[in-house]
Amino acid sequence: MRQPVNFAMLSVTLADVRAAAARLAGAIEHTPFVHSRTLSRLTGAEVFLKFENLQFTASFKERGALNKLLSLTPEERKRGVIAMSAGNHAQAVAYHASRLGIPALIVMPKGSPNTKIRNTQVHGAKVVLEGENLFEAGKHARALAARDNLVFVHPYEDPLIIAGQGTVGLEMLEAVSDLDVLVVPVGGGGLISGIAVAAKTLKPTLRVFGVETRNYPSMHQRLNNLPVECGGDTIAEGIAVKDVGNTAFAIIRQLVDEVLVVKEETIERAVAALIEIEKTVAEGAGAAALAALLEEPARFAGKRVGLPISGGNIDSRVLASVLMRGLVRDSRLVRLRVTMPDVSGSLAKVAALIAEGGGNIVEVQHQRVFGAASVKSPEVEFLVETRDRDHTQTLIALIEKAGVRVLVF
């Protein structure tokens, strides 16, 4: 059984978070925290969303970065700062360093999304691409910091960073004091540790859950004394962290109830749901908290749940793919392979049946050479938009009733 927490002995306290909030006032957005009726009906919980994707650089990272930068001495500001980041911390440091007149150098992994690299450069920082992951980028950044006498601004392993991120939780509880649960994405642990300090100090009965992607469950593994095994591609590159912060870990071990692990597919569903339902853009990491509710609705049913949409910096090409894959997953975009006699009017007949059933033909491919059926019975592939899975089945039944063979693939 977990022992009672002595909040005063934590490396970051509520006083630190409140001091950060006072320091940041007027320099960052006090983002909306609103109830989502549709997501509440969808998940069975009462869902409240904190729109951190509405910060100027589209993520919560501005809070910690600015809190750290404001703590620097004039001599440290003159020397300049360096950071390693997969994108959001990079943009936050670049933007606020530029505002404060501080030279900034950012080391990003080679596979960082183009939109995050470009935006970091636009905000005035010099970008160096080094390493295949955040760990390798961090090693290079530390070497450059030592060589050039730069101030290292870590994305999560710093009490000032954690205190700044904790202002998210402070604002959530100030806006909606009767929350039962907070669900927070976990990368290095800076956001959830800061939020947990603020939330659990103010309301000790409140439960805090973290969320990681299945390919990078490092915090979950450490908390459960498992070997840390991470790797592979993920849509949630913002939380694709193998080496979690020790400072954050010490707080999380005492204050966070559990760290959940969700599937990549569920994170994609969450990104699509936030666009379709809330009309807001979330990156994979930013949608991870909602993914936990979609994947484990029974755990949160009937609870008042706060979720930060932690970031919105997603590559437009990736976003387009996620939305299209969502349509396919929900059977709202289907490929129908129809085998028909090679006679005049056959194609028009099937097209008319699809129209009669309420389907929208997006694309048609007439296959004569590579088809598996008889040369006298060419195959035609229709890419069709439907309302949902039931509508798709109704449409297929209508086509088959007319004596036409159809296969969904």
Q: Roughly how many Å is the radius of gyration?
A: 25 Å
Q: Biggest sheet, strands in spatial order? A: 1-2-10-7-8-9
* Total number of strands: 14
CATH class value of the largest domain: Alpha Beta
* Domain tally: 3
How is the main sheet built?
6 strands, mixed
Structural notes for this entry:
The protein has 409 residues and is α/β, with parallel strands linked by helices. The protein folds into three domains: 7-55 and 158-326, Rossmann fold; 61-152, Rossmann fold, CATH 3.40.50.1100; 331-408, Alpha-Beta Plaits, CATH 3.30.70. The chain contains 17 helices and 14 strands. The chain has helices at residues 14-24, 37-43, 61-70, 74-79, 88-100, 114-122, 134-148, 159-175, 190-202, 218-223, 246-255, 264-278, 284-295, 297-300, 316-329, 346-356, 389-401; strands at 33-36, 46-51, 81-84, 104-108, 126-129, 151-152, 181-185, 207-213, 258-262, 304-309, 333-339, 360-367, 379-385, 405-408. The strands form three sheets. The chain has a six-stranded mixed β-sheet with strand order 1-2-10-7-8-9, with helices on both faces. A four-stranded parallel β-sheet has the order 5-4-3-6, with helices on both faces. It has a four-stranded antiparallel β-sheet with strand order 12-13-11-14. Strand 4 (104-108), helix 6 (114-122) and strand 5 (126-129) form a beta-alpha-beta unit. Helix 8 (159-175) packs across helix 9 (190-202). The longest helix has 17 residues, at 159-175. It is elongated.
